[in-house]
Amino acid sequence: MTMDVMNPIVERILYNIEKVMIGKRNVAQLSLVALLAEGHVLLEDVPGVGKTMMVRALAKSVGANFKRIQFTPDLLPSDVTGVSIYNPKEMEFQFIPGPLMANIILADEINRTSPKTQSALLEAMEEASVTIDGVTHRLEKPFFVMATQNPTDYEGTYPLPEAQLDRFLLKLRMGYPDQEEEIEVLNRVQQKPPIEDVKPVISIQELRNLQNQIKHVHVDKTMKRYIVEMANQTRNHENVYMGVSPRGSIALMKAAQAYAFMCGRDYVLPDDIQLLVPAVFAHRIILKSEAKFAGILTEDLLSDMIENVAVPVQRVM
């Protein structure tokens, strides 16, 4: 994943992240796509490859109010959202905010907690609010959740329900570094953790302004039809039990707008959509049992779909 003409603000953020993350520029770019598109990211990989460090570097780069929630089997929903406690002096209930009340949330090892606690994130991720004892509390924008999870076949993990997965704009994997990159990791952490040297390069208000600008990136009607045709392919494929919902189509459009902006354009191209389809659609698709037994992978299925859907001709803006 490369960008020919990088927006200078975006380049500053990515350069900052790369002080900590070596060889993960693609993951950093896509994580920034989600942040700018006001979506959320699910990072799935084995422990120790830098998932937590990625979100910490991103949060520090934008000067955001950052909170980390370590998901464990005994974590309760109120431990995430907050709780109302009766104050006898004031003779009324007072809301004690939970760690969810921040700009950037690291939901660490989200699949190690129960589905009941996982669902505590649903309203926050979709509506940017939480409801406690019938009272709705709005979350300050920007609100961005980056959740990490270990592969679901690991012992002590709970698969995320489909409704929860659908709230994530993108699902990404870190992967192991190559040998030279890993040597550089050792060099950088030998003296002190490089995360300590990461300083904000933009303010929260500047981030809000960028998010607002992205909403005005032009999406031609031919691009919208292209997105819908991609989604429709997943709903009618012989190997798919459940395809992409309209929420997935919306997610792909918003992600494409953010990516186009990062590339220095004010319009979306078919290439933007094609590049983002795997990260936006893969976790929203459920294959039929027989397809799984046959060894068919969702990523391969999406690659075939991209090849089969006619590419529209984009008029130059």
TrEMBL record:
Q: Which residues constitute the signal peptide according to the record?
A: none
Entries under SUPFAM superfamilies matching the protein: P-loop containing nucleoside triphosphate hydrolases
Q: Where is the ChlI/MoxR AAA lid domain?
A: 233-303
Domain ATPase AAA-3 intervals? 40-170
Keyword set includes ATP-binding? yes
Q: Which GO terms describe its molecular function?
A: ATP binding; ATP hydrolysis activity
Is ATP-binding one of the keywords UniProt gives this record? yes
Instruction: Write out the entry's keywords from A to Z.
Output: ATP-binding, Nucleotide-binding
Listed transmembrane segments:
none
**Per the similarity annotation, which family is this?**
Belongs to the MoxR family.
Q: What is this protein called?
A: MoxR family ATPase
- Please name the source species: Niallia endozanthoxylica
Q: What is the lineage of its organism?
A: Bacteria, Bacillati, Bacillota, Bacilli, Bacillales
